[in-house]
Amino acid sequence: MYCMCEVLGELIVMHYLVIAKVRERLAVGKQAAQRFERQKFNWRKFNEPKVREQYQIEITNRFAALENLNVDEDVNMTWENIKENIQNSAKESLGLHELKQNKPWFDAECLGFLDQRKQAKMQWIQDPSQSNVDILNNVRREVSRYFRRAKLRNLKLTVRSKTLRTCIGVSMTLRRGTSLYVI
After folding, report:
1. pLDDT per position as a tens digit, 92-148
2. C-alpha span between 52 and 60 (Å, rounded)
3. How far apart are CA 96 and CA 53, in angstroms?
4. What does pTM read for this prediction?
5. Would 93 disulfide with which of 55, 86, 129, 135, CB 3.0-4.6 Å?
6. Residue 170's Cα: distance from chain center in Å?
7. At a CB cut-off of 8 Å and minimum separation 6, what does 15 contact?
8. Are strands 11-16 and 2-7 parallel, antiparallel or unpaired?
């Protein structure tokens, strides 16, 4: 097949058409797989005057100790010291931010299963071999099964102990396909 193009209104050039199949996939670098989670501080406590004063005192004390350090240090080392001091004083005075638990059935074991699924997916993205695909599918199946059972367990406990309004609210939050069994 030929494609004719007109260049500058006079020249006619002939080209071969190129047809190609392109397969795309996401690739994750090794650094993304080894990424660590940042610490989130509870900055709402900073609005309280006592906590704010405590934070200011801690920062002042830590930086007073930094002034006595060697001036000939590398800039990167100095920055690391400053960063660590700010983080430590914020952790001591403000505390870490605690996530709000929206799903009462989600416990520490669920979190472990979730981490296991993330690791299997990262392994599959880095090396998309058939064995890694099988491992990922098995892990996904196990995690889904455990989550379903945990939801049902929570639903049964709620039905036994709560009022009808609470039971209906819980059943509405669950995914479609989950039946409401009153035992």
Report:
1. 888 887 777 778 888 889 989 999 999 999 999 988 899 999 999 999 999 999 999
2. 12
3. 18
4. 0.46
5. 55
6. 26
7. 2, 3, 5
8. antiparallel
